[in-house]
């Protein structure tokens, strides 16, 4: 597995198109892999996420089974004469994960549930959770089977901050798509190393093609940095 960071130049026309359409960004990420098994393999798939740490600063993070080539993104939405992208091997970190480790994490996800729109409806459909409390519980309910637990603060609350809560609307061909997304920052503790590795390489929740599901790690309380 590989972890890649690419800085987007939001002043460029190509960048504005990519940032306004998860479908367009998905296509651009997919185009970074000429071989299909570099994009997706059994047990691992390509995931991506946009982070905006400061005004006019946008990073694209990608985890992938194979090494990507982002030349087309540099030409369309980067700085072709001064910067490209940074790709690191992810497997060394994945191999060190074990129960008891604590990490700071970030995740952008699509917290959703299935249900019927009306009592008479025969087909179920997916609905996004829009309340912050529902979005928080969505992640907490899944954490155990994903191989981790969210740490607890001194006040007893989960060490979790939700931000960039929004609803995205865009087109997928002739069809409209609406997604509820939220970014989670917090501290976690690994409870099951194998399940947690599967979470990092396979993603969390739905809408993985549209920038959801990628969980990244950073050092917390002396742990080894993940990115």
TrEMBL record:
InterPro entries in the record: CRISPR-assoc_prot_Cse3 (IPR010179)
Signal peptide positions on this chain: none
Highest rank taxon of the organism: Bacteria
Record NCBIfam families: casE_Cse3
Protein name: CRISPR-associated Cse3 family protein
Species of provenance: Paractinoplanes brasiliensis
């Amino acid at each position: 597995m590989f972890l890649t960071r690419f800085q987007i130049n939001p002043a460029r026309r190509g960048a504005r198109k990519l940032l306004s359409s998860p479908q367009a960004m998905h296509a651009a990420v997919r185009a970074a892999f000429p071989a299909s098994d570099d994009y997706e393999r059994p047990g691992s798939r390509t995931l991506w996420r946009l982070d905006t740490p400061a005004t006019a600063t946008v990073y694209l993070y990608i985890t992938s089974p194979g090494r990507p080539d982002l030349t087309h993104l540099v030409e369309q939405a980067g700085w072709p004469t001064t910067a490209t992208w940074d790709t690191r091997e992810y497997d060394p970190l994945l191999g060190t994960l074990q129960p008891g480790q604590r990490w700071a994490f970030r995740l952008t996800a699509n917290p959703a549930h299935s249900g019927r729109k009306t009592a008479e409806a025969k087909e179920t459909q997916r609905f996004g959770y829009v309340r912050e409390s529902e979005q928080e519980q969505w992640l907490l309910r899944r954490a155990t089977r994903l191989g981790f637990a969210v740490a607890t603060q001194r006040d007893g609350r989960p060490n979790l901050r939700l931000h960039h809560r929004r609803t995205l609307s865009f087109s997928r061909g002739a069809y409209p798509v609406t997604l509820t997304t939220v970014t989670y920052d917090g501290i976690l503790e690994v409870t099951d190393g194998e399940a947690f590795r599967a979470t990092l390489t396979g993603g969390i929740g739905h809408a993985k093609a549209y920038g959801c599901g990628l969980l990244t790690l950073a050092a917390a309380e002396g742990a080894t940095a993940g990115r």
